């Protein structure tokens, strides 16, 4: 777990050097925190500001109020709590399946040698690179056609939305996971195989526990990506009770002239909570990893 | 069927006996495949019958491929890739091919439907001949679901008759009764539900006694005539009322006097869109500028976020750093705020008059503020600043994860050799990181190359360039330019043209990515030998 | 290997037969017969399933008046897209409609900008709504692709304001929407800082100077670019975008972006910046402009009824008045919201009847007004408006010109917006700006 080898000098007045370095690190942390959180402060401020404006207002609103938050939950038109639940449901489901798909594929790309390995890896990345703003029409047609025969996979269904999101799973994350697999020595595989393990068992029993940190990263990135996706969801979901938070919030500020920034800010803040909480909770897996002793022998 | 161990230098190895041979796994696989195949066959059959051939073909091919992969031991590794790959082919590759196809058509405003649909819609239009009588109808229905109309001529109350689809009208007298020959009058509160059915029928017998219910006014029916008839020989629509002929001109039925019929339909236009791409003066004059900025924008976005994220990841990844977990969580927050929230906030903060960041700058410079939105250079700086803010947490998280994979022994060896921190970073950390993170940088470059959301939210691509043939701004990237064409800022939606531009963008990205591949591939080999 | 294949094949055959037998193996119906109006290749998503309605009590004879017994559900549905302000009103209306006719009203709520874009995607595929509630200037683009069917205003047509109906009338003389509400912008001013409102733009300038000298940041403030909000200034000096024909329709060939009046308007605007009354680098957005007014940093703005709630919440004393004049009274755009009909809908007659008999009534129009106070396009309701702000907007709207609904209008926003911005930021002179607008927009109109 220690990375002490990377960023320090090996000789000299270690203790004093270390203390100065530490102070510098903490200072840097404070500066970065200000940089990262300053705009967020403004969003918080806007959420308590009754004028509904996002800019041109003082940081501490002159008439602070909870009205925006109240309107979020009491709004007969926009079922915000429902959107919250929908978003969590969609993001979690997609994350689980996407992580599974990614990990399985990465295992194969890392551990096996087959003729299409390199071309496939390149193809995956290239396809992700394709500008997708015109895909809307094609995806709309695909789901419309599916929906005629399998209603659960049509327009305005979560089934259809999952298909679209999961279709885009293979990509850079696969590479990332594969790289992580690559860093685990193959002796482990061989030892297990000698004991009679099949390909699947090598994956499931031996390797999977070891790649947990990268799984966390991939899961987190997928969750955030899905949670805040609104371009596709907006076109595919037509029933406002099916909306995700991203679609609903975006609608609040898409009116031509009168955006409700106050309510929107309140909604956006609350919407950001799950991601932060999830990350805080899963952090320890992030930095667990190889050096916790699994590698010896 | 058992794969022999292959020792390929620097390559992956297939563990011996990788493909399972157990009976149980056999049975499971066959059952699952049979289920999938059954569903697919049923689906494909339906789709082909309804005319959705391309999607059906794709589904069929993918399913066949899946079968091969799961049955043949030779393709064992592909079984792990199959789920993701299958989904990708159907949901991502197919739309790409669709876009490619569209680039050879004139799909767009005025050409949104297929020829069959256009003909059908135009042929369904009717007109009322000048001398025709408009009758008032009352509707009847019998238990078998058939309809009958009771028609009265409002100008001549003695002209009363009933009519049923396919039969001659029958004269009657008096008021419409509640029951008539087994038909019951449809009550008012059920009538609305029947309107769809009623309007789809032709009552009576053609050609002289065919009545239809009016589509626009409730209660009226008349002998409507079909207005247009399609003549395949001339590939034209013929107006039955005036005799005017509308020829098919590139997907729009146009008469010699210049009148057109809507809807128009999409037709293949060959390479026209691509030719236009290269010869269009409005596009080519500013293209280079926009292109260069697009590349710079993408590169700088990746560079800045990566450098900052990596720097922070390394600096904070030491055991003596306090509160690392909360620190990381807080630093992640910018990434959790969607762009359509964050960018307007930043735009407000940067505003030269009212934004607090500009005001703070003014106190140091004695009043001068960067013209964040009106000066081309400062606008670009502003956007890159926001991009860095939005993206550094992503790099921070990823590099933190990747740092965990770096083995310690190399560093100990380097320490023994007396290497200093910078040397260790440059020769060990950075190359190893790039192996893992390289593809992500490529993907991030591509993402930002097409990142029209941030650009349009900042200042709609502005500030505008003066003296250009078409409106374009200094911060416009190829994507916003394409988006405008595709979705109507220029007054029409030209999906065909936009698709061609998209293919060109992809080609450019493809070439750039190939170069990046060389770089990351080299690193891959190096990494494996370490 | 051969064995495996055999097993699989047999399972496949069995599987398919089973599925075909149970799961309704009949392929869906072939495309409908030619007589079916507005038919589409794909079978519709809401097929009018005329199920046998359960026998009800003896029906009352009136047309669409309240009947005694609620109608049984016929399984037919009408789909309508509306924005979040009016969707709830339609849902209430829908409940009543279903009760009386047995037809369900499916209300889909979408952001107003999305309604237009998504309609263009969805309508040709047959999966679109039957009715959309949107702005009248959409009909140019939508008609260019044949997406709209003409609307018959029906027996109550006389209740609609003529200029609202004119806005929805297309170049072919047919009406493509049933109007619901009109809106226009006007001059909103701070009554503390501006005791008597200006009546000419020269006065605006002198007042702005005085207000600025007295310590307020801005007298008159406007957002950068934005041809929509700029239009009243342009017309006040005699400029126009499209010339009008004798019958009031717009002529796409007569583009007036660099005529004398338009250049004069730009000159006035430029002088505001040159004299320091407006800041060239400020990048004032609409949001900032309203915000400044709410904070007392600006005394006069040109905006619409949507800004009033925020201003009231900020506690600023305000009033609404007509747009000042240049060489003539400034005419803002009039925007009309209304119901439009999908040409590919399977429920044309039903939708038309719904509009004619349920929407074009005092009751419904009043309900719309009560929940969403905009100037109603239905004259009996509009005459009863008492709110002073709305009346002031209506007064300013007397000279309003409907936004041109010809397709060429869509080509105007980009070029004109850029030109105004370039003049305001000092990158082009007024004449240069006007000329660039004229050339960019005419290029865009003639198309490639």
Summarize the topology.
The complex is a heterotrimer of chains A (about 300), B (about 525) and C (about 450).
Chain A: H1 4-7, H2 14-47, H3 67-74, H4 80-111, H5 117-129, H6 135-149, H7 158-167, H8 172-182, H9 186-194, H10 199-207, H11 212-227, H12 231-236, H13 245-252, H14 261-286
Chain B: H1 23-50, H2 53-71, H3 78-102, H4 115-123, E1 126-127, E2 134-141, E3 147-152, E4 160-163, E5 170-171, E6 179-180, E7 183-185, H5 188-199, E8 203-205, E9 209-213, E10 220-222, E11 225-226, E12 228-231, E13 236-239, E14 245-249, E15 252-255, E16 260-261, H6 272-279, H7 281-316, H8 324-336, H9 339-350, H10 356-365, H11 376-403, H12 408-416, H13 421-449, H14 452-459, H15 478-486, H16 495-529
Antiparallel strand pairs in B: 1-11, 2-3, 2-7, 2-10, 3-4, 4-5, 6-7, 8-9, 9-10, 12-13, 13-14, 14-15, 15-16
Helix pairs in contact in B: 1-2, 2-3, 3-16, 6-16, 7-11, 7-13, 8-11, 9-14, 11-13, 13-16, 15-16
Chain C: H1 2-22, E1 77-82, H2 87-101, E2 104-109, H3 112-122, E3 131-135, H4 139-144, E4 148-149, H5 162-167, E5 178-183, E6 186-190, H6 201-213, E7 218-221, H7 227-236, E8 242-244, E9 250-255, H8 260-274, H9 286-294, E10 298-303, H10 308-314, E11 318-321, E12 333-342, H11 348-359, H12 362-371, E13 375-376, H13 379-382, H14 388-396, E14 401-402, H15 412-424, H16 430-446
Parallel strand pairs in C: 1-2, 1-3, 7-10, 12-14
Antiparallel strand pairs in C: 3-12, 4-12, 5-12, 5-13, 6-10, 6-11, 8-9
Structure, described:
The complex is a heterotrimer of chains A (297), B (530) and C (448). Chain A has 297 residues and is mainly alpha-helical. Chain A has one domain (77-292): Orthogonal Bundle (MetI-like fold), CATH 1.10.3720. Helices cover 68% and strands 0% of the residues of chain A. In chain A, helix 9 packs across helix 10. Residues 1-5 and 289-297 of chain A have low confidence and may be disordered. In chain B, helix 7 (281-316) crosses helix 11 (376-403) and helix 13 (421-449) packs antiparallel against helix 16 (495-529). Chain B has 16 helices and 16 strands. Chain B has three domains: 23-102, MalF N-terminal region-like (Methane Monooxygenase Hydroxylase, Chain G, domain 1, Up-down Bundle), CATH 1.20.58.370; 126-226, Beta Barrel (Periplasmic binding protein-like II), CATH 2.40.430.10; 275-322 and 383-529, MetI-like (MetI-like fold, Orthogonal Bundle), CATH 1.10.3720. Chain B has helices at 23-50, 53-71, 78-102, 115-123, 188-199, 272-279, 281-316, 324-336, 339-350, 356-365, 376-403, 408-416, 421-449, 452-459, 478-486, 495-529, and strands spanning 126-127, 134-141, 147-152, 160-163, 170-171, 179-180, 183-185, 203-205, 209-213, 220-222, 225-226, 228-231, 236-239, 245-249, 252-255, 260-261. Chain B has 530 residues and is of the alpha+beta class. The radius of gyration of chain B is 34 Å and the shape is elongated. Chain C folds into two domains: 77-183 and 335-393, Periplasmic binding protein-like II (D-Maltodextrin-Binding Protein, domain 2), CATH 3.40.190; 186-331 and 406-446, 3-Layer(aba) Sandwich (D-Maltodextrin-Binding Protein, domain 2). Chain C is 40% helix and 15% strand. In chain C, strands 1, 2, 3, 4, 5, 12, 13 and 14 form an eight-stranded mixed beta sheet that branches. The radius of gyration of chain C is 27 Å and the shape is globular. The chains are: A mainly alpha (297), B alpha+beta (530), C alpha/beta (448). Chain A binds chain C through residues 50-57, 76-78, 136-137, 140-141, 144, 147-148, 155, 234-235, 238-240, 250-251, 254-259, 261, and chain C through 28, 42-43, 45, 83-85, 87-88, 108-114, 118, 121-122, 125, 127, 285-288, 290-292, 294-295, 297, 303-304, 306-307, 309-310, 313-314.
